[in-house]
Amino acid sequence: MAEEKKQKLTNTLLPTESMKAIGESIGLSQMQEETCQVLSEEASYRIKEIAQDALKFMHHGKRRKLMTSDIDYALKLKNVEPLYGFHAQEFIPFRFASGGGRELYFYEEKEVELSDIINTPLPRVPLDVSLKAHWLSIEGVQPAIPENPPPASKEQQKAESTEPLKAVKPGQEEVQMHNKGQGTAATDAKGKDQKKLIEGSAMKLKPRSTHELSVEQQLYYKEITEACVGSCEAKRAEALQSIATDPGLYQMLPRFSTFISEGVRVNVVQNNLALLIYLMRMVKALMDNPTLYLEKYLHELIPAVVTCIVSRQLCLRPDVDNHWALRDFAARLMAQTCKTFSTTTNNIQSRITKTFTKSWLDEKTQWTTRYGCIAGLAELGPDVIKTLIIPRLQVEGARIKAVHEGPVVSNIDKIGADHVQSLLLKHCASVIAKLRSPPDNQEQYRADYGYLGPMLCTHVVKARSQAAIQAQQVNRTTLTITQPRPTLTLSQGGQPSSTSRTPSIIKMPNSITLPMQTLVSARPSTSTQPSPPPTKFIVMSSSSGSSSTQQVITLSSAQSAPTSTSPVTTTVPSLQPLVKLEPGGSQGTGNAVTVGSGVSRTVQKYIVVSLPSAADGKSQNTMGQHQLSPSSSAALEANAVGSLNNAVTVKLERPESPSNGNQSPQPSH
Amino acid sequence: MAAIPDGPVKSETELEVKPDSVNDIAGNPNVVQGIGGTPKTSPSVAATVASVTPPDITDRQTLLAVLQFLKKNKLLESEETLRKESGLCLDNEEQSGSVDGGSVCATGDAEGSDASLLSRVSGVTSAPAAAAVTGAPVPAKGDDQPDVSVVLSAYSQQGDPALYQVYYSGLKKFIESVLDCHRAELSQVFYPLFVHMYLELVYNQHEAEAKDFFDKFHGDQECYYQDDLRVLSGLTKKEHMKGNETLLDFRTSKFVLRISRDSYQLLKRHLQERQNNQIWNIIQEHLYIDIFDGMPRSKSQIDSMSGSLAGEARREANKAKVFYGLLKEPEIEVPLDDEDEEAENEEGKPKKKKPKKDSLGSKSKKQDPNAPQQNRIPLPELKDSDKLDKIMNMKEATKRIRLGPDSLPSICFYTFLNAYQGLTAVDFTDDSSLIAGGFADSTVRVWSVTPKKLRGVKSAADLSLIDKESDDVLERIMDEKTASESKILYGHSGPVYGTSFSPDRNYLLSCSEDGTVRLWSLQTFTCLVGYKGHNYPVWDTQFSPYGYYFVSGGHDRVARLWATDHYQPLRMFSGHLADVTSTRFHPNCNYVVTGSADRTIRLWDVLTGNCVRILTGHKGPIHSLAFSPNGKFLASGATDGRILLWDIGHGVMIGELKGHTDTIYALKFSRDGEILASGSMDNTVKLWDATKAFDDIETDDFTAATGHITLPENSQDILLGTYVTKSTAVVHVHFTRRNLLLAAGSYNP
């Protein structure tokens, strides 16, 4: 009672100007100030009185919102004619306008053409009231069915993990106890004893948290994990969607988390790229689920993700396989994690940054790890790029130069250096474009940034020029497809725009959720996120040997026909992100893209480019940047090799002996 | 020092209407009006039925003021109605015979005119009283038109407005300096004093001072008076005071404080030493201080009882004997040929509806000592169909699940989809076969939740063709073509705020914003009667557990008791200072309980129309009430999210259940009274261990005499479970005969 907060009561009055304005509107000019004063007091009082009466109607209407009809009834109580024609189901969209020292609230009413009303087709008749029954509780236990809210809200999960003593509600606990006891009086009594102890709070006992799964949950868990790493992409998409949206998963969260971390450990050792990708997608899906409180499991998830970013080797054939895409994807996940969960107490972001920087600075670090570190840092946002990456451009440039111009050490090193170079160019160009003022001088750049200077310069110039030109182009999502299983990663073209990077915002910005779009043309029903309006896909195939054919699926006003498609994976800068595909044993399995696959078994490429048609103001910026950086295409190239075939069938079991020569740097958490 | 030196004791005079006199007066409205201009004075102001307390003058003053107001505003119809009603009441009192020859007419303007009204009435109807009146000369008043100002005139005393703040803060300082044990008690004075001083300032048109006074001290008041303070803050002019009901109430009903003798002495001494007449006058005139001997109460004790619009209930208001026991159920022989062995088991047993837990041996042949006379209130005769239903009920009862902390009920939730925030009321039939929903769009909808569809009766022409002798005539009269799962009842012209099924499932009541209560037939699905009596929105209505009678309450602050075959109410229960928001029948049909926006609960005797209990302690309007099946206890829920438990017999609060965070719209005890279920706007259904809640109290040493209860802080132990819905506010809860809990609400995404 006393502890309840007291509000300040003030007697607010309508301003006298309003009285004047209202007077003028009905033709009374020259109202005296005193008159206005009296009028405003009276009007304020009456309005309050009516509002207080209207509240009664709201309460009896069993609502929390005051509606216009409540006001009408209150007026009726006072024997005043209600206001006719002033109905609004929801809130009243009062608009505010100011200017010239005057502030004004007004109700926007559009003039409606009568013929418009007549000619428009009738709206759908609203559904009639209907009655639906469900079990809210069965003998004291709330069943987890869609009609009921998720068993534990995020806050509750949080409370459970941070303050276990407070979180347990007596009723629920008793119910749990009872369930476990199932009639055996002994356990029941024990449960009660324990409860008493807790309540007595003489000893602060942490209640044992039980993580029993019901049979249904166990089945679900099995299905989901199998689908996530299984061979059927359609199933996987469904499973991931379920993880990302299902509200009742929190009990399975510890299992998922272990599944992922163990899975990563095993598959890194075995260099099983495909499975690592699947696992990262699971992490992504978990993070997308708004009902889960992931904080408790970050210590398992973060090492797994970081492993996928910086591990020295992620695939069997590092020269051919596109493990770069996985690194990029994981780096983005990491950035998202930092943004969502980093607090002043756990300091995730700074610890992660330190880890990356340390191994990057190490002279002996491999190119792959180097690439991962840079990607990880770059995804953390322009500020990090500015302070940590740009100062080291010269050093890094020298290193790349050494590889490029020195004696050829190995092909792998060369590829690695190429990727690092394009990555640096991609990320730094946009930041430098903002840092430096327009006159871009090659020599100046060389002086500032060393070997990479001239290339940076061209990128920056492009960035500047195209930012203007392609303002209307947005966000393109690129999908990489491997044919045997039409999986895969998709990585988003542009990096998330810098504005959305602010770490404090927990809500995921639009640009981050986008990458998860699955190939829409293949499975329209599984597009998980609300995708930005119409997306167009252009699929091109070019088989070596025959003339390249271009085919446009689903739609698309093919505005930009990619011009250069090179059959070999190179780092040729091209404006279009490419995807290279090699058909595996079975042709066209599950792939909706029915391109001339029958032509030859050799090398075939599908390029899937999505072009959102409508300009989305927010991401214009991003797009511009992306367009500029030709290197991105290289980064996105996925070489899905036939080796994936066997990858999928691998079941995740406990590693017999995970070789601990495991190169994955695991940040301590 | 005895009691309080000032003022007559205000009795709970209730406007009581006897059915026979309704018609009596209704025939003569013109007469009543005709004499309107010539006041005569009767010395015989009637006393109450009980003839122990002098008449309630303040109430009449209000009445008169209202009459005057109506007349001024040319609201002739309402004036007439009110005159009728008030006249009747007075008339009745006179008829009751106890004529008190007091000299009330001399006391002042108000009483004089009051008496004149009385005489008018008595002149019309009551001969003996009239005889006593004749010859009494009428002292001519300055203005023979009683005015609203009369009511307010008590404020006209003048003090130096600038000193009000000094007085108040002086008193504040004093109270803060007294011993702790007295401080809590004396702090009660702050709020009423604050209000009256503010009103005085406003009334005497010291607006600036009033504003200063308000700004300076309103923050000190207890938070549960926020709503009233908000009303008060808007009121800044003398003109506003006219017609503001809240303030009239404040003036006309004395604020009741309960203070221990020691504390009171302390206060009195202080005020007299300081010569602080201003405050002393207010205390004398506007407050009623109920002094008790013994230990001063603690802050928590006071807080648990205060919060109502007019302070706590006086102790004597809750002294009347209440027969809270259950009526004996009529004996019904279960026909032997009624199939299975169950019937044999139960053969010959009295058909107890609720107290199954009564030891089976005693069969409760003897009358419960707390039960009222079987025929205290005439009840409708049982029809064959009722008997059948009782047998069904009893059979179900044998399959009933014994509930308790270890066996919680299952909850089946009925969600109204696509209601678009329009669901305003829900009711289930006792056998849980039908659901009625009242909606903001003025419709009432009835659903069948069993496979049996709703069918209307055939048209008259078709009915005449039916063979009336056939066994299945009841089946034949139904029209199969009309069978559907739900029916819509059109008739109201405003949101439907309450629905109630009759126990025999043949009728449905609904009450609405349009001021009417409607009776619907569930045979024909048409409206049978519209009961017009409330001129303002009717917030709640309920059928009596035996049918025939029903009660309604609304914005006009009056609860009315009706019988389905009378178009006029049988009783009017008036006394609440704000809207009657919730009404319920006691299981024995002899009492009616009403909850109000004045934050009090009143229990009314149906026979006499008297208020027999006033229960204070809620801090917000009361929106739900429920009697325990044994009739002994009452649970009430309010907008503040608290459930209070009351012992009817002693008239004291015995428990407070905290846990909800929003208005509680639904309360219900399980069939055996072991579990209390509550449903709230906060989208939860909670189950409470009622047995434990009641036991905890009864084992304490029971200070029923003083009513100073220290409530155990055990809400968390009593709470058995919380079940959250998905954004569905819970509007109604109901236990089936087998103790399955049904809940209902509309989904508001």
From TrEMBL, chain A:
UniProt cross-references to InterPro entries, sorted A to Z: Histone-fold (IPR009072), TAF6 (IPR037796), TAF6_C (IPR011442), TAF6_C_sf (IPR046344), TAF_TATA-bd_Histone-like_dom (IPR004823)
Chain segments carrying region Disordered: 142-194, 483-507, 614-669
GO biological process: RNA polymerase II preinitiation complex assembly
All copies of domain TATA box binding protein associated factor (TAF) histone-like fold, residue ranges: 12-78
Residue spans of biased composition, Polar residues class: 483-503, 618-634
Protein origin, superkingdom: Eukaryota
Entry keyword Transcription regulation: yes
Cellular-component GO terms for this entry: SAGA complex; SLIK (SAGA-like) complex; transcription factor TFIID complex
SMART domains: TAF (SM00803)
Ranges of Low complexity composition bias in the record: 657-669
GO MF annotations, alphabetized: protein heterodimerization activity; RNA polymerase II general transcription initiation factor activity; transcription coactivator activity
Primary location: nucleus
PANTHER family: TRANSCRIPTION INITIATION FACTOR TFIID SUBUNIT 6
Family that this chain belongs to: Belongs to the TAF6 family.
UniProt-recorded name of the protein: Transcription initiation factor TFIID subunit 6
Species whose genome carries this gene: Polypterus senegalus (Senegal bichir)
